[in-house]
Structures are given as C-alpha cells and as structure tokens.
Amino acid sequence: MTLYETLANHLKEHIQQGFFPVGSKLPSVRQLSHEHSVSLSTVQEAYRQLELEGMVEAKPKSGYFVRKIEIRTPLPTTTRPPQRPMEVSQWEEVLNLLLCKSESGFLQLQHAMPDMESSSLKPLLKKLGDLSRHRPDLGLPYGDIRGSEELREQLARLAVASGCLLHPDDLVVTSGCQEALSVCLRAVTQPGDIVAIESPSFYGSMQAIKAANLKTMEIPTHSEDGLSLEALELALDQWPIKAILITPTCNNPMGYSLSEAKKERLYKLAQSYDISIIEDDVYGDISYDFPRPKSIKSFDEDGRVLLCSSFSKSVAPGLRVGWIAPGRYRDKVTHIKYVSSSMCPTLPQIAMADFIKTGGYERHVRRMRLQYQQGRDHFLDAIQTYLPKGTRVSYPKGGFVLWVELNDNIDVAKLAIMGRECKINIAPGMLFSSTGKYRNCMRLNFSDQSIADRENGVRKLAYVINKYSKQYS
After folding, report:
1. What is the pTM of this model?
2. pLDDT reading at 450 higher than 70
3. For the HTH gntR-type domain, which residue ranges apply (predicted)?
C-alpha cells in the first residue's frame, strides 16, 4: 500500500468514526504533511483519492471538507391510502421478493440488509467462534424462556439511550423483530380487529397482520413529517381500531423520524382512546442523529407501548436476536412466545451480550451510522444526476433504505422484471401497501455497495426506466 493510500485510509477511518462530522473542515495539507512526515504531494494525492470516493470536497481558498450533499430532488407526495379498513394481500409478491437469490453480478437493491463486511464485526465473530469451539455445550439445553439474563441486562443498558428505564425482567428475547411484532399483535388484538399502520408500511409487518387475521387501517404519511396524527385521530373516531403499529424512528421504507414532540402526542392520543402502540424500533440505533432519538416507549406511563427491536439491521439478520419490552402485556407476551417458539438459541445471545458489554457494539454502530449517511448522500446524488425529471425521493434520517416515486405512468412491478434482465433487483412499492398501491414507487437499499457500484446501479436503473418508457409509451 502506498503512502497516500495509507493516509487516505487513515482519514477515511477518522471520518467514519465521527471525528470529522459531515460538513466539517479537515486538516490542511501542510498540517497533515507535518503530522505524518510525508510530502505535500502525498497529502494532496490522498485528498484526491477521497474526492474520487465522494467523501470529501475541496473549496477554493478554504481547504477540504467532509462532503455534504445538496438536495435538489423534491420529496415524495403525502400518501392517500384507502379511508377504510382493508385485508392484507400481496403475500405471493412478498414471497417472490424473499426468494430472490443473490446471483453473481447482480446489484441487490431490493433487500433491507445491513453491511456485514465491516471490520468492526470481528470481535463478535471471534466470540461466536470461541463459543462454538470451546463452549458448544452452552447451546444445547433449554434456556430461560425470556432469554439470556446476561443479554437482557445489556439490552436494558442500551435502552437508556432511547430514553427508557427498563429492568432486565421487563424484556423478552425473540427470534428477530419479525417474531416480536407477530407476538405483540397477537397479545393486543383478536382476529377481525383493526390495526392502524403507516402508509406505505414495511411488508413484514403487514404479513404479520395478515397471519393474525387482522385488518389494516392505512394512515396518510409524509416522507419527512411521518404519519399524520390528524388523519389518525379521524380514523380512531370512525373505526374501532385496537392498536397502532408504527416505525417512528428511521422508518422503513421512507426513512423519516418523527420528532419527539410528535411521538409524545401520538402516545397521548393512544392513551385518550385507550389503545396499544406496537413500536418497531429496529433501525433506531443507526439513526444519523446523536444522541439517538427517543422512542415512543420513553413516554410510556401506563405500559401500553410494546417496544420491539432486534440486531437484524444494526448488526446482522442471521443472528436472529430480537426483543420486546411489552409493558403491561409482559405475561401475555411471554405465554405467546412460549407456545409459538419456546426459547431462542443461546450462543448468539451470549455473543451479543459480550459484544455490547465490551464496547464492540457501540463502536460498530458509530461506524455504520456515518457509513450509511455517506451512502445516502452518494445515492441521492446519483439519483439526482441520472433518474428522469419528475422523480421524487425521500431523505432518510437513518438506516439504509429510501423511497423513490416515479411518474404516475410507470408500473414498477413491470420495471422490476425489466431490471432483472439488466442484473439489478429492486423492491416495488406495491409490496408496502395492504392493497397494492404505490405501483409507481420503489424502495432501494444503499447499505453495502461501493460508490462505483451504487452509481452504476442508478445508471442502469435510469436505462431501464428509459427502456420502459419507450416500450409502454
């Protein structure tokens, strides 16, 4: 590795760890030359390398700065879902997406998958390896039905960052957030009940609603302000809604985060109508804001909020380590968890508890926050450059997915088929509605592609859109 590459990597690591926030000025060429005992041309070449990667920008007579994108593309319009309860459909389409394999040479923009190649995961992988080699017996017997006490202690520590004061006994460990949502829905509803959800909403949540024989009431949602509380209140007046299922922090698929004031208002609204809130906080720890936003659960005075989360988005989905803070529904949740899947595998719980306790988790999410924020900026820049005029795109406040709204005359389900011919996979918007709305929209993932792959993918997408327009004009 050359001197300039070594220096570039050093600077990149400091940017990723948050020593140089987005928009901040970087050390001068002369300062870095002195500090690292390298020539001025070496420093200049290192900065040029970071410019090519889109991480820094040079400002005349001012120096180098951590790059901050200027947003020119308009945000998606406020959604207009059906104004009545609906049964969830789209399972066949969701199944097709889930079965879509990662073929060689394909750019996978369809799955909400985190980057699992980061070196900050090495301590966790080492712990898993050590446990498998030296203490595999720990994973053989039945464990605590509520989950490993060691893990629950660490989860209670993590909860403080979101404003929650929890005891380890307040938590129930699950096989990922998907099981957590499913268990909570069954705990607070009966078949035939109505659940209010954001629109668009995560297809996994809606399929959990479908499996519990419930109906959805989709509430209008804006990509920046989030769910409309006014529309929710009207729905609560008109329909016997039994629960609200919401992802208020780093929402999937739009990426917005509700303000703390709006989260508290939502809680008070649920309190006044005496209904439960199921809060999906799976992306909360990878919010770009620091400190991370408070959860709705932090305002919970009477145990009506069931907080669900997991490490599937902040670390890796294959761990299948999730949890619930079920409040007043703890006994019911524990019983449903027992009859549905009994206990969760022990070794991943022990490894995650160690990862958190030794500081590895905090270091990892700190790096991921910055990496995903930079990925968002690069992706938005490419979308603004290559996708056709009239495209609207969300501006995520965390996580690694965003929502794209194309012209009304484009059917993204057909576009996705054409995209596969060009070795690019996308998630059509109709999957995120109980009735197949948002046919001109799509959710895209920007977590783990290189800058070159990301830009190439958007160029391919632009080509496919142009080809579609000619074929179906």
Report:
1. 0.86
2. yes
3. 1-69
